[in-house]
Amino acid sequence: CVELDCWDGKAPDEEPIITHGKAMCTEIMAEEAFDAIGKCAFVTSEYPVVLSFENHCCKKQQLKLAKFCEKYFGDTLGKAPLEKFPLGPGKRMAGPVHLKNRILIKNKRLKAEAEKEELEIYLKGGDLAEEAAEDPNAPPPEPKPDEAPK
C-alpha cells in the first residue's frame, strides 16, 4: 500500500504533484510517479498494489489523475468488481490471491448523485468547469457571525 498525497500543481503547467502536504519536502510530478508505479508494481510480487490517494486536487486536476491512472496502469487498474465477488452487504470480498496483478485505488467517494454526474461527464470526455484550487476534502467554512442563519 502506497499513500500518495496529491495536490494541485503550480503555474505555468498546473500539473498535479505528489508531496507531503505543506511540509518542506520535495515535490514530484504525479504523472512521473504513476509512470514509475506502472513500470515497477509487479516486478517482485504479483500481489495487488493499493494506492491510497490523499486527494487535495481540484476537479480539473483530479480528471488528469484519472487519465494518468488509465494511461500508466492500463488493464492492471481495478475498475470493476470481479465476477466471482460482486460487491454488496454480506457478500464475500475478493482476497489478495484473487487480485494478483491489479492496482487498486483507495480514495474518498463522492455522494452517489454527484459521483454519477461526474462519471457521466468523464466518460463523455467533457471538460470540467473551472473552480478554485481548494482542498475538496476540507469542511465548509464557518459562517461569519453577521452571516449566521436566523
TrEMBL record:
<dbReference type="GO" id="GO:0016042">
    <property type="term" value="P:lipid catabolic process"/>
</dbReference>
<keyword id="KW-0442">Lipid degradation</keyword>
<keyword id="KW-0443">Lipid metabolism</keyword>
<feature type="region of interest" description="Disordered">
    <location>
        <begin position="128"/>
        <end position="150"/>
    </location>
</feature>
<protein>
    <recommendedName>
        <fullName>phosphoinositide phospholipase C</fullName>
        <ecNumber>3.1.4.11</ecNumber>
    </recommendedName>
</protein>
<dbReference type="InterPro" id="IPR017946">
    <property type="entry name" value="PLC-like_Pdiesterase_TIM-brl"/>
</dbReference>
<dbReference type="GO" id="GO:0051209">
    <property type="term" value="P:release of sequestered calcium ion into cytosol"/>
</dbReference>
<dbReference type="GO" id="GO:0046488">
    <property type="term" value="P:phosphatidylinositol metabolic process"/>
</dbReference>
<feature type="domain" description="Phosphatidylinositol-specific phospholipase C X">
    <location>
        <begin position="1"/>
        <end position="108"/>
    </location>
</feature>
<dbReference type="InterPro" id="IPR000909">
    <property type="entry name" value="PLipase_C_PInositol-sp_X_dom"/>
</dbReference>
<dbReference type="GO" id="GO:0004435">
    <property type="term" value="F:phosphatidylinositol-4,5-bisphosphate phospholipase C activity"/>
</dbReference>
<dbReference type="GO" id="GO:0048015">
    <property type="term" value="P:phosphatidylinositol-mediated signaling"/>
</dbReference>
<dbReference type="Pfam" id="PF00388">
    <property type="entry name" value="PI-PLC-X"/>
</dbReference>
<keyword id="KW-0378">Hydrolase</keyword>
<dbReference type="InterPro" id="IPR001192">
    <property type="entry name" value="PI-PLC_fam"/>
</dbReference>
